[in-house]
Amino acid sequence: MLLAALLLGTAATGCGEAAGSGEAPAPAPAAAAAAPVFWVDPASAAARQAATWRRQGRTAQARLIQRIAGRPQAVWLNTDGAQSVVRSQVGAAARARRTPVLVAYFIPHRDCGAYSSGGARDAAQYRRWIDGVARGIGNRGAYVIVEPDAVPHLVAGCPGVNARERYDLLAHAVQRLKRQPHTKVYLDAGNASWIPDPRRLVAPLRRAGIATADGFALNVSNYQTDKVSSDYGHRLARVLGGGKHFVVDSSRNGNGPFRGGLAWCNPPGRALGTPPTARTGVPALDAYLWIKRPGESDGTCRGGPRAGQWWPQYALGLASRARG
Known about the structure:
Layout: H1 29-32, H2 45-55, H3 59-69, E1 75-77, H4 82-95, E2 101-104, H5 123-137, E3 142-146, H6 150-156, H7 163-178, E4 183-188, H8 199-207, E5 215-218, H9 226-240, E6 245-249, E7 285-289, H10 312-320
Parallel strand pairs: 1-2, 2-3, 3-4, 4-5, 5-6, 6-7
Helix pairs in contact: 2-3, 3-10, 4-5, 5-7, 6-8
């Protein structure tokens, strides 16, 4: 399974602590009902790369990287002390009247000790961390993807992980984040190639708190096509019941999956996919999102840097093969 990125998103300018003390106001009810427009981080690694190449006169490459830099991407939260980063990012998005996408990625025994290993040292630290993320969001709008791979790893097998504890922590994360009035929460459910039979995910997702969440996330850091992911999402939604919706990571699926070995880790020949949008034309599909930040490595495979590090050569390849 592809390992999710490790870099914490670069913080933008700060914002106030709470409503009435500088925090951007919550959207009015009429605006909240409209399809959100997602926030573009002006200080992303892609934006910095494009600016550097423009200064160097490498204009053709800068234009290609702008295909990434100019589009909304998720902010990954994977180190301690995330509350201040969340407050800064969500505040910057609110001032721009945009909705940020955040990824909570700090579960203990993250990634089963593989390339993206790490996370909280214990359950108590994780609970405090999630509380901080929720406080950082406050009453402003945000989409939050909860713990990529955490549930599918339990289904597929993750030695050394206390399953009961993990399910309890995931349920706590979903419930705590949903206490924020304008936060949409999606629990990660892997991708169509990892757990092909969605019925195997029903009981695990229920134990992990899917009933409280807005829905589930699919294809995070993977390459399954929009159609494959959408079909799988509808199948999973049917067997889950409860009318759950879903979001799809379309950041790098423009050419679909790599048909060869190590298909999840920096596969060659891939391309950017559908730009992020909440206007999908599919009632149960809430959004196409760039959850994995295109151009950040999957790990030290195929010559890549460590997971989450910006890799300009790979980014150029993704952008150059993008359609449109």
